[in-house]
Amino acid sequence: TVVSKTAYNIVRQNLPTSNFNMDPSQKRTLDKEYVSEIVGQPINSYFLSEGSKKGDNVIGKMLSVEVETENEEKLHLAIKSLLPLVGDCDAASIGQAHFVTQLQVFPTELAYYTTARPLLQKVTGLKLDKPKFYSGCSDGLNDYIALEDLRNQGYKMADKKKGLNLPQVFSTLKNVAQLHAHAYAVIESNNETMNEAMSTSPLSGHTWGRSIFGLDQSLFFNSIIQKMVELLKEIGEEESAKKTERFADEGHKILLDLWRKTGQNGTKYFRTLIHGDLWINNLLFKGNSDGESVEDIAFIDFQQCRFGNIYEELHYFFFTSTTADFRKTHLRTCLQTYFQNFESILQGLNTEMPRGFTVDELIATFYENVEYGFAYDLVGIPFQLGEPIHDSPTPGNQQSDGPSDQQLDVEGILKGAAEGLKQGAKNSPIAIQRLKELTKEMIKLNCNFPCHTTFKFLTVNKEKSLFTMDQWDYASGLLLPGENVIGVQANVRLYNGDDKIQAKNDTGRATLTTHRFLWETTALKASFSLAKVQRLDKESKGFTSVFSGKCPKIVIHVVASQKPPSAATSPFINDTHATFFKLGFTQGGLDEFLTKVADTLRQKVWEKKAPVEQKRRMGILGIERDIKDEFKKTDQKISEAFHDLKSLMEMAKPMVQLAKNISNRAAKQAASNPEDEEDAEALQFRKQLLSLGIEEPVTKKSYSKKDEYHLHLAMEICSALDKLVLEAGGMMTLVEAYCRINRARGVHVISPHDLMGACQMLKKAPNATLTLREFDTKVKILQHISFDDDLQIAQALSLVEERGSVTPDEYAIAVGVPIFIGKQSLIMAEGQEKLCRDESVEGLRFYPNLFLNEGIEAS
Question: Is Protein transport among this UniProt entry's keywords (predicted)?
């Protein structure tokens, strides 16, 4: 977490240095032995340097460590520590350490790297493996986290003063969706380790929910917002200051209220694991210098990692890492991108989406809780963008080596820190600009009211309230049991009788389901039961155009309500006697929508009893059950298919012997009658018999050492493939050799790795007739020892001179060898200056080297 240097020093210089369970004299100092323990292996040397800019690392000390192990491996580490690992501790460092231990940042981050991330990687295959975690400690004195330093690999932070661009945001959302989805899948599987972490580990708490020396953090959080209100007044932004004042009283509550919603309201705020501090300085990007191309991304600083909901993460990220202009242009697209990635990952994990969680629900709930983002950024701007000012004593306190316990005034210290943040922001033009943009954005979205009065700005023309509207209900966006979406139409106006509902956005999205009408804007979701509809009419009066403001409408006549309206259940309060409402279609689509409504009303699906939902197989447990079922089915199929396998294996040896006897007889018959040419069918039959099988294949279990196994396997390969390689022209590709040897071995299949190991042992095999050859092009083949390069070169030269020129394909077909072997023969002839090549759009073609012919005169 980055903090203004001023606030950082005010806090740390005034915190207590005694009466806490910390003896700095007992802390460990970084030396060769300690570094060896940290990296988990003996080292030759190490080199230290500063790991961050001064004042940039409020949670502790940062060192960059270059290590050379005894194996001469170069390691680059970033080590964060509670107390300095080199040199003595001054009073400020000790006071700061007391402050940090109150927030539990080291235990929290350590819990992520030692428990949460390994669990997700093991259970669901989470691929967020950077940076590498080496080791850590959280004993309250020697706290440290040692991670791989990615900066020397080309990873770097983006410019916090500019904010992230679209490629960087997309990359971030793709990866954070991966974290959220994998954690959700494990939580849904009821994993015991995850359940324990959610209830007992530091990941179960909120950093801003912990007290500082017994003092609630609301004082500090709200004091910072109050200072931003004062700053707005000082720079002449009176309206913005007035609109922001409420956050100075409720900011901290808004912060924790959203976190406390986790797991409530069905699955709307479903529980998952979030980074908790996802902003520019905790993101490392690898790509080009302007950030327009992102190759990779790494998340760092999981000090506020916790179990929460995705809206906490998304609001914090967008409002601290992007500009107001970016959000205005790209926010909806970005949220859609997050949703698509989240959905895709859950599908890959065979885990069902949270019930009712759609892209529209995501966007609507994001705006519903937009106050959270504003509250956090009002605090984040001075922290992240404030300019350092010269250190000065906190008002009312004289600087010394550290105040005594009697002098300690935590409340005064924190208020002084808030004042320091204000001065830092005041000295920063970019902080001032970002603060103005934020408050203007807040006013535009009408965010100056409490969350529970979100719908107050919805009024009716001429201040009328029509009675039909009290039958509308608040909608969560979740579908009812058995309910399905029939149609959706954007840019639809809602009319309360003849009067248009005036919202911030003139139009909303109308959704027709089998049970309800839904009407949604960025701030409101309302629903109306189809069971209350009496009849439909179509209204298309007068001249309609985008300039006249008129549009064709569907008139929905409804049953009169017998209940008094209630603000707790309805977003619209009414007291007149109109018996209809209207939907105005500003961008077309009325006829199609009207047809769907009429059909739905005739079917009356809402009257049918919803089917009892079967127990869902979701999450990791579902995967495990499916795997067990598949195992049972597979076992049954194997038992049926290979019931006689034992008998077949017993018959395999005599079958191979019989094939050899037949082949030998055919060979003797051909030898006794050399003048009779063996016909093609007899020759093909003999080849098939020769490659039918191996009597006793070499197996791993027969040998204790791998080299011994590979040596005997090499001898077997020579025996089985000797004649086949000769017939193939003296060379055989490893792919063909792999297929041939495994065909001969039957069920005793070897791996490509074992084949390569055996080929490398051919040079040690006694009486080996085959060798492993590697060409200059790095292509490896099996070659018979009788193979003669000069003969192959002469054959290639002869064919090229005969035809004038050949391609590798033409040569391979003419000689009867694989194409790449034919190409190698031509390349060998070229290497001997017998041939020359021509590469053109037609491909590669070889010609005789005319410069070697006598009688050619230079022109």
Answer: yes
Question: Beta strands 485-496 and 580-585: pairing type?
Answer: antiparallel
- In terms of domains, do 704 and 670 share one? no
Is residue 327 assigned to a domain?
yes
Query: How many residues would you count in the chain?
Result: 859
Q: What is the DSSP letter of 511?
A: E
**Mode of pairing for the β-strands spanning 485-496 and 499-502:** antiparallel
Tokens 């060192």 belong to 63
| Whether residues 673 and 702 fall in one domain | no
Query: Rounded distance, CA 372 to CA 616, Å?
Result: 34
Give the pLDDT score at 110.
Answer: 93
Q: What's residue 545's pLDDT?
A: 42
Kindly state whether residues 108 and 133 are assigned to the same domain: yes
Cα-trace Rg, the chain: 38
DSSP string, 388-404: P----PPTT----SS--
Q: How many domains does the chain have?
A: 4
Determine the pLDDT at residue 173: 96
In the prediction, which pLDDT does 805 show? 92
**Sign of the C-alpha dihedral, residues 399, 401, 406, 408?**
positive
Whether 597 and 735 share a structural domain: no
Please name which of 37, 38, 41, 46 lies closest in space to residue 80, comparing C-alpha atoms: 38
Domain boundary among 603, 636, 663: 603
Is the alpha carbon torsion for 320, 83, 8, 100 positive or negative?
Answer: positive
Q: Do 762 and 655 belong together in one domain?
A: no
Tokens matching residue 25: 């004299």
User: Dihedral sign, CA of 389, 390, 391, 396?
Assistant: negative
pLDDT of the residue at 59: 65
Cβ neighbours, 10 Å, residue 548: 9
- Site of tokens 């509670």: 82
Do 282 and 375 lie in a common domain? yes
**Cα–Cα distance measured from residue 710 to residue 703, given in angstroms and rounded to the nearest whole number:** 9
Domain boundary among 539, 570, 603: 603
**Number of helices (H) and strands (E), helices first, in the chain?**
25, 25
pLDDT beneath 50, residues of the chain: 1-19, 55, 57, 391-407, 448-468, 504, 543-548, 564-570, 573-577, 613, 615, 678, 855-859
Sheet holding 770-774, edge to edge: 731-733, 780-784, 770-774
Q: What is the pLDDT of residue 155?
A: 92
Same domain, 688 and 745: no
Whole-model pTM? 0.55
